[in-house]
Amino acid sequence: MRNVLPKKKKEKKLRFKKPRQRKVVIKKEELKKGIYIIPSLFTSGNMCFGILSILSSIDGQFINAAWFLIGALACDILDGRIARMTKTTSDFGMQLDSLSDLISFGAAPAMMVYMLVLNTMGKIGVAIAVLFVLCSALRLARFNVLAQSGEVHKHFVGLPTPASAGVIISFVLSYELLGPAEVPLDVKTIPILMTLMPTFFKIMPIVIVVLSFLMVSNIPYMSFKRIKLSRVRTIELLALLIVLIILIVVYPQNIFFIIFFVYAASGIIFSVPRFFIKRILKQNVNPLPKEDSSAEKAEENDV
Fold first, then answer.
1. Could you give the domains of the chain?
2. C-alpha of 154 from chain center
3. What's the pLDDT score for residue 160?
C-alpha cells in the first residue's frame, strides 16, 4: 500500500487589517421642522424692540432707541440659549432669528446713526446707512448658508451683526451723556473716554463703513455660544468676571462701549500678525531650482 501522505491543510494567511483612521467630523446641529413657542417668543420680542427703536429714532429719542436695542440684544441671547437648552432648535427659528436680527441690528442702528450723525452729509450719509443694512443682510445670509451646509466653526466668520450694532448702540448711550452741564447725570462716567467722544462723533461715518466691511469679511471672531459656565474654570477668570460686572454696574454706558469696541477691533488686531506670519513662512519655503527639475526630467527620458 502506498503511503498516502495526509494533505496539508491550507494555511490561512492571517491578514492584518490596517487600522482605519477615524476622521473627526463635527456633525452640524440638526434643525427640526416646526414652530417652538418659547424660543420664538423671545425672537419676536427681538423684532418688536427693533421696530420700537426705529420709531424712537424717527422721533429723535435716541436714548430710548438705544435702550430698546439693548432689550433686543438680551432677547437675541436668550432665544438661542433657550433653544439649545431645550433642544428646540429649528429651521423656522433660524430664519425668524435672521429676519429679526436684520431689523434690530441692521435697519434700527442704521436709522439711529443716520438721524444722529449722517443726516447732515446728504447723499453720502444715506449711502453709508444703506451700506450698513446691506452688509448686515449679506452677513446673515452667509451665516444661514454655513449653518445649513454642515460646516461648524468654533468662531464667527466676519463680525456678527449684534456686535457691530453694539458699537453704535453703546456710542449713542455714551455720547448722549455729554448733555448740558446744568443737567445732573444719574450715572458715573469715565472722564478720559468722555473727552474722546466728540472726536469719535466726527469719525463715526468712517467707523460705520469699517463695521460694514468687517461684517462681510472672512476675519474670524471669537464665539461665546459654546462656552458652558457650568464647567470648572480658573479662579482668575472668576475674578475677572466679578471685576467686569462691578465696572458695568458703576460705568454702564462707557463699559459697554469699551467691550463692543474692543471686540470689533480684536479681529483686526489678531488677523494682521497672522497675515504677516503666513507671508514670511511662504517666503522662507525655497522652491526647487529650475535647473534641477530639468535635469531630473532628462534622466527620466533616458531611462
1. 37-282 (1.20.120)
2. 11
3. 92
